[in-house]
Structures are given as structure tokens and as C-alpha cells.
Automatic annotation (TrEMBL):
Originating species: Streptomyces lydicus
Record-given protein name: ArsR family transcriptional regulator
Residue ranges constituting the HTH arsR-type domain according to the UniProt record: 32-112
Highest rank taxon of the organism: Bacteria
Region Disordered, residue ranges: 1-23
Length: 119
């Protein structure tokens, strides 16, 4: 599937908090990104954000994953630290979205492969 990064980008809402710490675009490393995607749950999270996003960003609860909160925290942190998602802290909750423009610039076609992935 060929993804249109511009169509997947959502504008940052006014007053959105700054993103949590993440690697810069130029610091994204393919082996780290692929390592994060090697877990099927993390691949599913990224794919869901790519294909089913309804808003700028989403809470962990939006995914409907039947996992302990500590497990989800670990998976979302791994995705953020690898540079796949951007997270912002809204009070007690973190909301996430895929870093489409950064990933397409560094690894063209990678997100299309993720979108085509089947469990």
C-alpha cells in the first residue's frame, strides 16, 4: 500500500502540550525502528494509528487492548523511544500518533509495509 503522508498528518490542536522526549528525525535508526516493530502488539498499535485514527492523537484506552496498564506503558514507551510515535501528556493521560512525516522521510515505504501487515 502506498501511503500519502500528507493525508495522514493531522494539525496539532491549539494548546497541545509539547511532545515527550523522542529521537530527532536524523537520529532515527532502522534497526531500532525494526526492533520496536518486531513485537506484534507494537506493530498492531502503529498500524491501528495509521489506518483508524479519528483525531490528532489517541489514549491507550482508545485501542481497546486487553493488557495491564504497565504492559501498555512499556510498549508505548518502546515505540516512542524508537521514534515511531509521538506522545503528549494531557494531565494523567498520554496520547499518541505516528510520526508519519519523519518516518517517511527517513525510511520511505516503511509505513506502507506496516499498513499492509496482517496478524
Amino acid at each position: 500500500m502506498r501511503l500519502d503522508p500528507a493525508a495522514l498528518q493531522r494539525p496539532v490542536p491549539p494548546g497541545a502540550p509539547e511532545p515527550l522526549a523522542e529521537p530527532d528525525r536524523d537520529a532515527l535508526r532502522l534497526e531500532v525502528v525494526m526492533g520496536a516493530l518486531s513485537d506484534p502488539l507494537r506493530m498492531r498499535i502503529v498500524r491501528t494509528l495509521l489506518l483508524e485514527s479519528e483525531a490528532f492523537d489517541h489514549t491507550c484506552g482508545w485501542f481497546g487492548l486487553d493488557r495491564p496498564k504497565s504492559s501498555l506503558t512499556h510498549h508505548f514507551r518502546a515505540l516512542r523511544e524508537a521514534g515511531l510515535i509521538r506522545q503528549r501528556q494531557y494531565g494523567l493521560e498520554r496520547r499518541s500518533h505516528v510520526r508519519v512525516a519523519d518516518l517517511e522521510a527517513r525510511f520511505p515505504g516503511l509505513l506502507g509495509l506496516v499498513a499492509d501487515w496482517q496478524e
